[in-house]
Design goal:
Layout lengths: L5 H25 L4 H6 L1 H11 L14 E4 L5 H11 L38 H16 L5 E6 L6 H12 L5 E6 L3 E2 L2 E2 H12 L1
Parallel strand pairs: 1-2, 2-3
Antiparallel strand pairs: 4-5
Helix pairs in contact: 1-3, 1-4, 3-4, 5-6
Bound molecules: thiamine diphosphate.
Length: about 200
């Protein structure tokens, strides 16, 4: 991928700022959702949806599109903001985030929201599904790429490690997994939760 010019980097930074503003607004209006993880993923989502991924917001089911799976599904507010900025649906819809009967629930639903590939929320599952999509694409001879975002807290799930081991074993090179290494899970530093692990194990 060619290096970005200063202008292009500036553009992505501006997009990420707008995503963060939407996140703060939607989550505070709804009084629901996960602000931390939705804010920390903004730069990653801006880069993916506005530079890296091959997508067509007017045709969200286009067969040749790259796929994105938000394995840390509780960060849906950030993904909705990105999809709205990219033109999958209106920015107005963001105002309904978390309300009863809205399509934009706190965890993303693939049957209700254009651009959402997989319904996620149970940590550890998204990366396994992303791996399955990538392996199926390889078998079918499809040339799209699969991107998956996982959390550092989420990485305590054994399922994450199992998926990564399988991906390495089968050399699944059409899957890119990105770790949102923000150091926090819910209200605690990840390092403090990890310190608890030995006492949980005995
Ligand atoms: C299997 C499972 N266990 C517990 C939860 C509850 N939960 C929601 S968010 C979260 C913390 C996730 O931390 P991290 O992956 O670091 O996400 P981020 O900090 O990026 O929001 C937990 C434990 C869940 N959604 N799924």
């Amino acid at each position: 991928m060619p290096e970005l010019s200063e202008n292009e980097v500036h553009h992505l930074e501006e997009v990420a700022k707008r995503i963060r503003c939407h996140v703060v607004r939607t989550i505070s209006q709804a009084r629901a959702g996960h602000p931390g993880g939705s804010l920390s993923e903004a730069d990653i989502l801006a880069a993916l949806y506005f530079h890296v991924m091959r997508v067509d917001p007017q045709h969200p089911d286009w067969q040749k599109r790259d796929r994105f799976v938000l394995s840390k599904g509780h960060g849906a507010a950030g993904l909705y903001a990105t999809l709205a900025e990219r033109g999958y649906f209106s920015l107005e819809l963001l105002k309904t985030f978390g309300r009863i009967n809205s399509t934009l629930q706190v965890h993303p639903d693939m049957h209700m929201v254009p651009g959402i590939e997989i319904s996620t929320g149970a940590l550890g599952q998204g990366i396994s599904v992303a791996l399955g999509i990538a392996m199926a694409a390889r078998m079918d001879g499809d040339d799209f790429h699969v991107y998956c975002l996982i959390g550092d807290g989420e990485s305590q799930e054994g399922q994450v490690w199992e998926a990564e081991e399988v991906a390495a074993h089968y050399r699944v090179d059409n899957l890119t997994v990105i770790l949102d290494y923000n150091g926090v899970q819910l209200m605690e530093p990840v390092s403090e939760v990890l310190e608890m692990a030995p006492s949980i194990c005995v």
